[in-house]
Amino acid sequence: MTGSSADTSTDRAALLSRVAELCRGAGVFGSVEVEGDAVSCAAANPEAEADYRAEATADGWLVGFFTADRWLSQSVEADLVHTGDKLHDLIEEEMVDQGLERKLAPGDVVHFRDEAKRFVFRTPFPAGTPAEDLAKALLAYEACFVELGDVGESEEE
Predict the structure, then answer these.
(1) 42 with 152: CB under 8 angstroms?
(2) Each residue of 6-38: pLDDT tens digit?
(3) Residues paired with 42 in a beta bridge
(4) pTM for this one?
(5) Which helix H or strand E contains 33, and what residues bound it?
(6) How many whole angstroms separate alpha carbon 39 and alpha carbon 102?
(7) For the stretch 119-147, what's the b/e string if a residue is b when 16 or more beta carbons lie within 10 angstroms of its beta carbon?
(8) Phi, psi of 112 (to 5 degrees)
(9) Contact call for residues 149 and 79 (beta carbons, < 8 A)
(10) CB atoms within 10 A of CB 2
(11) 128-137 tens-digit pLDDT
(12) In the sheet that 29-35 helps form, which strands lie side by side, from edge to edge?
């Protein structure tokens, strides 16, 4: 490998900046920020207390939906139980709608509570995933989750 860690750091910063730019341009998020090695896109519904993130890892990327709100997470889970829909199928459909062809198996979307006490739904992406594809994945997650549980609802409805 011929690049230095500074080159890698610069490349990652440029990629994250591009992902953030594309997500801002979509107009579906409350706010979009680059935070360290991640792009964080706040849910448009301020009551949702959730965000969509693309986080760099040692071997690629993790794209997903994060919330510290137990009720919000449970409302998503309840919708999936009641409809019988499989989350990986819903996210895959939204990826296709965004122009991102990616087959997802049941294990490709994991759900757990992390060390920061957030409820996480996320999918891994390989290293080298272009900024455009990461942005499409974030937009697919948003399009999927805004229809689930109370993520897209507000008190005004």
Answers:
(1) no
(2) 557 778 899 999 999 999 999 999 999 999 999
(3) 51
(4) 0.89
(5) strand 29-35
(6) 21
(7) bbbbbbbeeebebebbbbbbbbbbbbbbe
(8) -165, 175
(9) yes
(10) 4
(11) 999 999 999 9
(12) 29-35, 38-43, 50-57, 60-67, 119-126, 110-113
